[in-house]
Predict the 3D structure of the following.
Amino acid sequence: MLHEMIEQLSESDQKSAYEFLSHLLQRVKKDHKWWDEMEEVSEEEVLLTGEEKRQLQGDEGYVTGGDAKHEFGLQVDLP
């Protein structure tokens, strides 16, 4: 159907249609590249700030849930 529509256009309009469709295809390829890159990042990584990521990579100052419960007198179980 699209092919039939393009054939009805003048030669200069066909050139414009070709350029426009080429532009759309490039935009789609660009959008897919962005989406593919986003899929490579886990949801947890997206939600973490730079400081949180740095803290997770280091081992200083790590407190277990049980230690925090005991230290602060909490009544809930922490992971």
Remarks:
- The chain has a mean pLDDT of 78.
- Helices lie at 2-7, 11-39, 43-47, 50-57, 65-72.
- The first helix runs from residue 2 to 7.
- DSSP finds five helices and no strands in the chain.
